[in-house]
Predict the structure.
Amino acid sequence: MKVVKIPQVNGLGKTKGVGEAPDKVLAAIDEIYSNDLGKAVSRDLLDVTDVPVGENLIDDNDLIYKKAFASYGAEKVLFLGGDHSMSYPTTRAFFDYCEHNGREPSLIIFDAHPDLMEPVDYKIPTHEEWLRSLIKDGFNPKDILLVGCRNADPSELKVLAELGIKRVSVESLMSNLEGRTDYIMEFGYGKDVYVSMDIDVIDPAFAPGTGYCEPAGLTSREFLYIVKRLNKMKNLKALDLVEVNPSKDINGMTVAFAAKILSELI
């Protein structure tokens, strides 16, 4: 599987530290010898490249876009961040790649927040507004599914309602995990699927190393169940894993869990 390291930081000063995550998560893979399915796990199974981001966010976004566009194809790719701002150029590239190849894109987002805040800089979307900017660029809201959101700003709730973005709540997952996972998988039927995973969708009891710890999230086991189901989808083309912050972690729990997620995707 392709893995592209993108240590992008553009979180309004609130995500300092996430740039360390890609290297630390990959290092933690060395502590995992096999995954839940009994498959041997090794960094040698990963085709790892990176995007050398610097301090010019405009240039960085352009580099990320070009790298992402070139990464799409027959082989599944995982973008390892960084904060959620990096998902703007990667999903925009996915949207353009699908359009260029006569395919329809579908975006499934696991996040405690909608990331639909009013833009503070239209040229460089931050981690709080990247999805709003993507929709502004033409990504159809009907092809977006938001899973696990549990703390949205009132302005974001208004945008969600106006755009008709479909949602799956943590509560509904708890009442019927298998059935709601079926629905999540069916959402992208007939389309190419990109899955964006913000680690804060997980309850901070299991993943405390992130900038916005929101209580009452998914357990680590529940999320792994969903990830393993999604990984069986033949139309799953790309994923990202973002907002892991080693500087805010406790006993390396979040980094280790991010590595566990990656091990189940191999």
Notes: The mean pLDDT is 96. The radius of gyration is 17 Å.
